[in-house]
Amino acid sequence: MHLSTEVAPDQRPVSAAPRPQVNAPETERPPGETQPCIVTTKLCAFFGDHAAIKNVSMSVPQRAVTAIIGPSGCGKSTLLRCFNRMHETVPGARVEGMVEVLGSRIYGAGTSPIAVRRHVGMVFQRPTPFPTMSIRANVAAGLKVDPRSHRDRGDTDEIVQEALARAGLWSEVKDRLDKSAMALSGGQQQRLCIARALATRPRVILLDEPTASLDPLSTQKVEELVYELRNTVTVVIVTHNMQQAARVSDRTAFLLGGELVELTTTRDLFTAPRDPRTEAYITGRFG
Q1: For position 186, which CATH number holds?
Q2: Residue 187 sits in which domain range?
Q3: What are the strands of the beta sheet with 93-101, ordered from one edge?
Q4: How many domains does the chain have?
Q5: Cα(92)–Cα(281) distance, rounded to whole angstroms?
């Protein structure tokens, strides 16, 4: 890829919660798909003088789903936003350390944040369709950001259909592409936002608690979509729902107080955590 110019545990006696059941099967992947996609080295993220992320060094593999879990305020969303340079859009925010995506450093002189975001798409907690645009225009909106894009209507329609199909939404909206996106249900709007991110054909999709505001049926559809996307893109999902992390992810990272406590396969993290703080969190003793 080329890019252009601590929270203390609650000390009250708490009975241990059941461990999340890990439903995702262990799958063997070709060697080329296990190479690192995102690598951070001593990554720190600040809001003014406050360090929200502290010296995080981690590796996210290609074409897999990596979940980030941890209690509220531990830095999960901030870490995610560092992966596509969204963190620096907050006044007074800054990043130190290194982030590489597919071997390219995304911070530093000569690197365009817009170029980074073409390769690293993001979907937020609440669905954010553009209210004045049609379903089709919403999906195609990201294509206009690419200065090299000179697509005709036919090419754009093909990309829109492909993105909606990948998001599991095409069959539901194909007869109303020119209708307002706001007429869709909440779950459909969230899948529309995923389709919009997929339209630029990114290598990475970042999902920040994408089902937090959805009903159980819509949540299930988004989770099924996330699990399917791992076959073609790298997915990093922030979730407060440990059962969700167990269902959809290949690897899980546990953050606490802005620090990376543990990162391993989802099966190992939930069945045999190495750090006692991870054990305490996943069994419900704090968080």
Answers
A1: 3.40.50.300
A2: 36-282
A3: 50-61, 36-47, 93-101, 104-105
A4: 1
A5: 31
Q: What is the pLDDT of residues 14-60, one digit of tens each?
A: 445 666 666 654 444 444 446 899 999 999 999 999 999 999 999 99
Instruction: Read off the pLDDT band of 1 (50, 70, 90).
Output: low
Q: Determine contact, residues 56/79, Cβ cutoff 8 Å.
A: yes
3-state SS, the chain, equals CCCCCCCCCCCCCCCCCCCCCCCCCCCCCCHHHCCEEEEEEEEEEEECCEEEEEEEEEEEECCCEEEEECCCCCCHHHHHHHCCCCHHHCCCEEEEEEEEECCEECCCCCCCHHHHHHHEEEECCCCCCCCCCEHHHHHHHHHHHCCCCCCCHHHHHHHHHHHHHHCCCHHHHCCCCCCEHHHCCHHHHHHHHHHHHHCCCCCEEEEECCCCCCCHHHHHHHHHHHHHHCCCCEEEEECCCHHHHHHHCCEEEEEECCEEEEEEEHHHHHHCCCCHHHHHHHCCCCC
CA gap 22, 267 in Å, rounded: 6
Structure-block tokens of residue 43: 């990554």
Instruction: Compute, in degrees rounded to 10, the torsion defined by CA atoms 116, 120, 124, 128.
Output: 80
Q: What is the pTM of this model?
A: 0.86
264 in a structural domain: yes
